[in-house]
Amino acid sequence: MMIKRKNSAYSAQYRRPALRRAVAGLILAAFIAAGFHMPLPLYASHTTPEEDFTQVPDSNIWQSPSVSAGEAYNLTLAWLRLPDNVRNRLMNDNVKIYLIAKSDEVLTSARLNYSSDSRIGFAGLTTHPVYQRYVYPSSGRLAYVKRIADGAIELQTDAGVRTYLDPHRLIHEVGHYMDSAAGAATGTYFAISSSADWQVFYEAYGSDLLRTSAYIVRPDLYSAQECFADAFRLLCTDPDALEAISPSLYNYVSAMISAIPEVSPAAPG
C-alpha cells in the first residue's frame, strides 16, 4: 500500500523537492556503503564547539572545559541513579547531556527567559527529538514514525546565586525527555504529562510536588510537564517521599517509566 509523508509542525522545515531528496538518498546510500556513520542532526542551544566538550567515561555526559571534577562526579552519580531502561534509552537515542559552566558560555535560548530569575536556579533545557510521521493516504492511519533529529539535555551553571550544577536538575530534565520518549512510536510529544490520567494526578497532587520543586518560588510557571518531571526526579532520588504524597501517584509514575522501552519502537502499521 502506498504511504505518503505527513509533516508535523516540528518537521515542516525538512520539506525538500523530490530531486533534492533523491540526491540526498544517493549520498546517504554512498556513505552507508562506505561504512560511515552519519549521526542525526542536533538542534541544541549552546554554541560551544563539540570538540571543546569532554565525555565523562561510561556515560552520556559531556562537560565543557570549566566544569569542575566535583560537579562532573556528582552528575555522574545522578546518571547512575537513573533506571536501567532510562539510561539505555538515552544511549540508544544518542542523547548527549551537556554540562556547561557559565564561564565557558551563558546559554541565551529564548526558552530560558524564565530562568533569568536566579531564584529558580541554573538553567536546564531538554531538546526533544524531531519525528517524521508517515500515514496511509487512504485512511490517514499512522504507518510508522522516523526520528530525523536527536534530542539533547543541556545544564547550565546558574548565573545568579548558585554556581554549581545540580544533580537533581539532570534527573528532572531526563524526566522531560522520558515524557516524550513514551510517545515516540506515534511521534507524540509529552505523551505522559498531556494524558488525561496525568491531568487527574496533576490536579490532585500538583501542589504537593510543587513544594519539592525549584519552581516553588515561581508557581505561575509550574505546569503539568514540570510536575511530571519533578515526580520522575522524586522517583529516582527519594521514592519514599513520592509514595508519601500518594501511593497511587508513585505506582502510576513507576509504571509509566518502567513501560518505556530501551529502544524506540516502531509504530504499529
Write up this protein:
This protein has 269 residues and is α/β, with parallel strands linked by helices. 38% of the residues lie in helices and 13% in strands. The strands form 2 sheets. The protein has a 5-stranded mixed sheet, covered by helices on one side. A hairpin with a 6-residue loop joins strand 6 and strand 7. The N terminus is likely disordered.
How do you describe this structure in short?
Helix content is 38%, strand content 13%. The chain contains 8 helices and 8 strands.
Topology:
Blueprint: E1 4-6, H1 18-34, E2 54-55, E3 61-63, H2 69-81, H3 84-92, E4 96-100, E5 124-127, E6 130-135, E7 142-149, E8 152-156, H4 167-181, H5 196-210, H6 224-237, H7 239-245, H8 247-258
Parallel strand pairs: 3-4, 4-8
Antiparallel strand pairs: 1-6, 2-3, 5-8, 6-7
Helix pairs in contact: 2-4, 4-6, 5-6, 6-7, 6-8, 7-8
List keywords for this structure.
disordered N terminus, alpha/beta, 269 residues, 8 helices
Main beta sheet: 5 strands, mixed
**How much strand content do the residues show?**
5-15%
What is the strand arrangement across the widest sheet?
Answer: 2-3-4-8-5
Radius of gyration: 20 Å
The H/E string reads EHEEHHEEEEEHHHHH
Summing up helix and strand content along with how strands pair, one would put the structural category as alpha/beta
Shape: globular
What's the tally of helices? 8
Relative helix content: 25-40%
